[in-house]
Amino acid sequence: MARSLVRIASAAICTFAIGATSAFAADAVKLRISTPAVESDWHAKMLTVFKDELAKTAPGEFDVEIHLNASLFKQGTEPAAMQRGNLDMAMISAQDIAKQIPAWSVFTAGYLIRDPEHQKKVFNSDIGKKFYQMVADDMNIEILDVGYLGTRELNLANDKKITTPDDLKGVKLRMPGSDAWLFLGNALGADATPLAFGEVYTGLQTGTIDGQDNPLPTVKAVKFYEVTKQIVLTDHLVDAVFLSMAKNTYDDLSADQQKKVKDAAAVATAYNNKMRIEDEKSLIDFFKKEGLSIYAPDVAAFRTKVQNAYLESEFAKDWPEGIVEQINAVK
C-alpha cells in the first residue's frame, strides 16, 4: 500500500513538473530573428550575444530563434516581414528604412558619419531619437540600438589602379537593389549593379560584376578576397545596422521586458562594435598576405564628387532642414 502511494505521488509530481515546464515554455515570448549574415560575421555573433544576454537577465521569458544566411527572409525584405507580422526581429539598414521614409536617406549619404564613435553619438542624441520615432510611427518598427557595420571600401576583381572617381567609369560595382544603395554606387563613379548578397561571390568569380563594396570584416567573413585582386580604401560610408523589433511584438511586452530587450541590444551592439573595430585594424595585413593590393586613392576627390552628387540630388530635398549641419556638429 505504501509503495503504491509513493508511486502515485511520484507520478503526480512528474505530471505536475511536465505540465509546469510546458506552461513555462508556452509563456516564453518567441523572437524570430532573420539576417543575411553568415555565422562567422560579427553581426551574426552579435545576435547570439543578444540571445545569451536575455537568457541571463530574463531566464525563461524569451525563446530567441536566430536564422542566418537569409534562410528565413531575403536581404531587404525583413522590414516588410516585420510589418506584416511574419517576423519579430531583424537587423535593418538606413537604406532599407529610406525606402519608406525618404528623410532617412541622409544616413545613406557617403562621407557624412565620420567614424564609429560619431555614429553612436549621433544616434544616442536627440537626432537619433527623432529619427527612431519616425520609424516607430511610419513603419511600425521599434529600433532597439545601432551597431557599427564597418567602414565600406571598394573590393575589385580587376587590378586597374583606382585613384579618382573617373577611374571607376564602366566598372560594374555590386550594390544592394535599392535606390539609395544604387545612387551611392553611381556617385562613386561606378556602374552600380544590383545583386543579392548571396550571389556576390559567384558574380565576382564569373565576371557578372567587377567589384563590390563592404566593410573589411565582411570581405573576410564571406571570403570575397578569394575572387578579388584589390581593395581600394575609399572609406566612403561608415555603415550602420539597426537591431530592430516589430512594434507589435515590442508593444506586447511588459515595460520590464522592453527594458531587458533594449539592455540586451545595447550589450550586443557594444560587443559587435568592439570586435569589428579590432578586426578592421588587423585585416590590412591579412589581405596583403592573401595577395591583394591595398591602397588609398585620392579620398578628397571621392568625397567632393559624392557630397556634390547628394546635395544636388532628389534625396536632399527630403532631408530635414539643417540636418547635415546638426550631424556635423555632434562631437
From TrEMBL:
It comes from the Bacteria. One of its GO terms (biological process) is transmembrane transport. It is found in: Cell envelope. InterPro entries: DctP_fam, TRAP_DctP, TRAP_DctP_sf. The keyword Ribonucleoprotein does not apply. Its main location: other. Keywords: Signal, Transport. Residues 1-25 form the signal peptide. GO terms for cellular component: outer membrane-bounded periplasmic space. Belongs to the bacterial solute-binding protein 7 family. This is C4-dicarboxylate ABC transporter.
